Amino acid sequence: MKIQGRIGDMPVELDVTFEPHEWAQLAACMTGQTLAPAADSAPISVAEQAQQAVANGDKLLTLALQVLAAHGECDGPTLRSELLALAGTDVEAKRLLVRLRHHPQVTLSEEGSAPIYRWQDKPC
User: Fold this and answer.
1) Which of 11, 15, 58, 74 gets the most CB atoms within 10 Å of its CB?
2) In whole angstroms, what is the distance from residue 45 CA to residue 47 CA?
3) How far apart are CA 45 and CA 54, in angstroms?
């Protein structure tokens, strides 16, 4: 992908190359997003925007739970890196870790210097 433009008076040309898994990650990030409404359509209310954000967050949480369930147990740094690949941003990955920490099917223990997240087949 080639991007051309200007920053002030300076011309800028940028070549971006994605690996197949990066294209998949980009597509996954874009699936839950909504397009801006057309000029002639009614604007989306703040409540509707909040509901959409919650729905998108719940999709990510479901995927995060699936990742942990597939591992059975995972140390915090490894899980965080996988959630970063899933969520796309460090902030969202940290939010997912917090949500996992409080989920009834996840237990957390401190072993050594990193927390261990464990999947429980049945809620506590």
Assistant:
1) 74
2) 5
3) 14
Q: Is the pLDDT of residue 36 over 70?
A: no
What SS3 class is residue 91?
Answer: helix
What's the rounded Cα separation, in Å, for the pair 36 and 49?
Answer: 11
The pTM assigned to this predicted structure is: 0.55
Cβ contact 93:80 at 8 Å: yes
Look at 37-46, 59-68, 79-88, 97-106 and tell me which has the smallest mean pLDDT. Answer: 37-46
CA separation for the pair 62, 90 (Å, rounded): 18
> Tokens 């899933």 appear where?
86
51-71 pLDDT, tens per residue? 665 566 688 888 889 999 999
